[in-house]
Amino acid sequence: MAGNCSRPVKAVIFDLDGTLLDTESLVRSVSATVLERHGAKLTPDAEKAALGRRPLEAWQAVIEVLDVKGSTAQQLFDESEPLLQARWPDAHLLPGAERLLHHLHAKGVPVALATSSSRASLQRKLFTENKRHILEQFQAVTCGDEVAEGKPAPDAFRNIASQLQLDPADCLAFEDAPSGVDSATAAGMRVVVVPSLTNRLAYPKPEIDAKSGCCEVLSSLLDFQPSQYGLPGFEDLICGVTPMHPPWRLVGTVVKGFGRGSKELGIPTANLDNSALQAVLAETVTGIYCGWASIGSSSETYKMVMSIGWNPFYKNTEKTAEPWLLHDFPEDFYGEQLRLAVCGYIRPEANFTSLEALIARIHEDARISRSALQDPLLVQAQRLCMTAG
Ligand code: ADP
Ligand code: RBF
Ligand code: MG
């Protein structure tokens, strides 16, 4: 069996931004705005260098990568900070974050937080009605302004291990940033990576049996299997489907897809326009999901099974959401408003050696969806897509 059970994990340590909280799009837009005022443009390289670091050190990295002249990191920090502080309360938890934290806490597994944020920013990020309870679940917290050296130095993760009185080799870290992965690795921990950058080459190659460093790269926290690390497994699965709380409501227009003749294969997928996706989902979140759909002015709902991502089999360059409505329609409905309530996670996107294998797997996904969506818990989500607008 693949897995890393030989040394069971005794505690789980999370990074905050980009790992538990969807802050990356906020940070990206604020950084781009500030840089523009200084005649510079945010690039993927600059983002990679900054991600996961303490704010001042992140700006220093950006200045170096972009060769920004005439402004100090302190000046850029002073400009960006009020804009960010105003937006932190809007950052929402990433898919699967709440479920994983709640599960580990309920099973008595110590969980902790190792963030590069300052203590004051942490308060702003989590001190809203729907996020307040998250802080209570952590047995230990270390902030960027409480350690000598920030990530990628090991201080943050080391500090947590000593607070918990554990050997770092008994701790599992969750990180989204290359600098954070380096930090946890340098502290001697195993790391599960949930990337905030779309470029997989920005991260170390995963080795599931590694004694320290990157063990696996997941498309979201919904895909984590605790038993691979000797941790108690989830007990909430419905016919193999992970129920999602809260479900996502995706509303958009049905657009032309890639024209690959999916309909001829018996798998028509009503591609959603991209802005609908970007508004709700972090860039790097992908996977195969199930839920409910309704179309136009009708409140009738249909079961659906959907792929979100870059379709590794076809190596798409554009991210898409492609729901297959499990119903026979007499006509196409391009241009109509499509409302989706996505309430179950099935699996990560995969690659296949043949088109037949892909099609067989999609039919299996549909079968799983049909049965899981009969469960009262998942039936509840239907109401989310019934009303137009
Ligand atoms: P495209 O490449 O344009 O997405 P497809 O072959 O995937 O083409 O066909 C998708 C279109 O088929 C949808 O946009 C929709 O108008 C229509 N359609 C008919 N039945 C269904 C269904 N059960 N689920 C999804 N789309 C359907
Ligand atoms: N494409 C992939 O490359 N990998 C997948 O794992 C995958 N899973 C899918 C699951 C479902 C339920 C659906 C509807 C599509 C999936 N696709 C996947 C997308 C598929 O390649 C695309 O819809 C094609 O256009 C079908 O011919
Ligand atoms: Mg399609």
UniProtKB/TrEMBL annotation:
Ranges for domain Riboflavin kinase = 243-374
EC number annotated for this UniProt entry? 2.7.1.26
Tell me the InterPro entries matching this sequence: HAD-like_sf, HAD-SF_hydro_IA, HAD_sf, PGP-like_dom2, Riboflavin_kinase, Riboflavin_kinase_bac/euk, Riboflavin_kinase_dom_sf
UniProt keyword Transferase, yes or no: yes
**Pathway participation:** Cofactor biosynthesis; FMN biosynthesis; FMN from riboflavin (ATP route): step 1/1
Which controlled-vocabulary keywords does the entry list? ATP-binding, Flavoprotein, FMN, Nucleotide-binding, Transferase
Tell me, what's a Pfam family for it? Flavokinase
Gene Ontology biological-process entries: FMN biosynthetic process; riboflavin biosynthetic process
Kindly indicate whether the keyword Flavoprotein belongs to this entry.
yes
Select a single GO molecular function from the record's annotations and give it.
ATP binding
This one is known as: riboflavin kinase
Report the source organism: Apatococcus fuscideae
